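Please think about what follows:
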Amino acid sequence: MIFPLEELIEYDGNMYEITSAASRRSYQLSMLKDPDIEDNDGKVVSLAARQVFTEQIEFHLED
């Protein structure tokens, strides 16, 4: 799986929020040693970004 560039280009929301969400999700996946990482050829950031863009996970930033 490659980085979801098309979803990134089409995204019209807050870029900081989506970047922060993908970054935090990448950290979570790597710390949990999620088995999906191996299915994604070890590309944690791509996996996290896809999960965020496809709304497989929900996110919100805390104040």
Notes: The chain has a mean pLDDT of 89. The CA atoms of residues 54 and 60 lie 15 Å apart. The chain has four helices and no strands.
